[in-house]
Amino acid sequence: MEQLREMAFKKARFDPESDLQICEFLGEFEKGLAVYESLMAPGAADDRWAGLCHLAHGNRERALECLFRSVERGCHAAKIDLARVLFICDRVEECQKELQEIEPQGLSRFNQAMYFRVTAIHRSAFDLVEAAKLSERSWRVIQSADEFVFAAPRILHTLAYIYQTAKKPEKTDLYLSRAEEICVTRFKWHIKLTRLDLLFDLNRFDEARELCAELIDCPYPLIKSSGMTVMGCIELSLWNPEKARGWFEMAWEYAGRHNMYDNHFISLSYLVMVYHAQGHASKVQLALREMQKYADNANFNQKFLLRKTWVKGSYQQEDVVLLREVEAFWLRAGNPSEVLRTRIYRLSMSMKLGLWDEDVLKELDQIVEHMIAEGLTHEFSEEWLFVPELFEMINRRHGNLLSVPAGPHIKILSIDREALEIHGAMIKLPFKKSFELIVYLCIKKEASLDGIAVDVFGDMPRDRARNYFHQIRHVINHKIKSITITYDRSTRMYALKSEHRLSLDVAPHLEGQKRLEGIFLPSSDSDWVIELNQRLGE
Questions:
Q1: CA gyration radius, the chain
Q2: Contact 482, 498 (CB under 8 A)
Q3: For 407-424, what is each residue's pLDDT tens digit?
């Protein structure tokens, strides 16, 4: 401990409340907790800084326990940190109550600066302009405090966070750079993590990958786990679900082992979606059950409801209503990003239910206009893989507005030709009806065996049509592999699935955007194809 004191006092001369404060300032959290355990009679200040060491390890419950005890024992300044942890735990009203009970005038310069910082974090959920002003006040106060060298990077980091939330990347970068410049402790890893979030939000994936690799090699479990999760999100953004799955599973296991429940929940949230996209129904249910265990606050519960509703697969009108309720929650909470995320899934669900009309299309266009106005066109790049039809529709209606992933892309070419292009290569399909079946399932989204037999194999006896379908399905699933025809036992429906971005050239015509000039599926004489050619050509 003596060595840590010497190290701290070389950086700044200050009067520590506790040896644990020195440990927390220097990022020696495990050492701090070991010191705390060794104390025969820890005092209120020891409780305070032990709570912050627990928080740095992602253990919110232990942090709250220590901070409540510190306040009860008379450490008034511990209310600042208690308010911060309550905010992190989504106990916003309790956070506000603790802040209202603090008189900043009677605090040291350091604690005053921390008070304005935590108040800014609280206000960022309601008023980003006011939050920025409070952070700037915190910055002014800390400059005359003995603890400047330890606290200033954290205050600049909060300013960067607020401007990132406000979608002002230039100011975010400015404050992150200044924080990195003056940081002389291990808090630099938290600054790097926020820079990683900024790079990811801007879809600068190559730079983000490099920084992820650096964070994954760092000595702090919370930072390592976050780096793994972002690496998974990068792979999702590039439509590489198998690689993403590996990173999310690693992050899930690692966060669980180190009791970092927030990171554990976030990794599970993505795994639920990846497992669903890959057709692993049992893994989806296991991940959902595990996810529900940690949906212990209102925010996490709404995120759980979104995932749980989406992976049902077979939707009803009430599912759309439920997602509207989730949207309303995020509107009340003042979280525009989650409002937008939920709307994206609701619109995609409406598409799958066949509820598209002029009002829905108008809402879609309004959402896109909002994304453009607020600089959100790079948002949710990790989610588009799960709603490919909506991704394709937005790009068709708005001139490739969304970033087209560089990963694998499957094109289904059905106008005046019949070709399947996978990763730039043409694939030869066995059996005459194979391509028509792929197109049919791509348009229908899901279909029963009887419906397929009647529409695609209508000129055959029913038993022969069913056998022919199963032969084609077997060949596609075992030889092509980039696409599969799946079967849902609960609904008895078949669907076309792929881990890659899939586009159908006739889609804009089906949406009524333009009249079909060529011939759709020229080799087919099926009634559904003839009727579609007539309708699209009118």
A1: 27
A2: yes
A3: 668 889 999 999 998 877
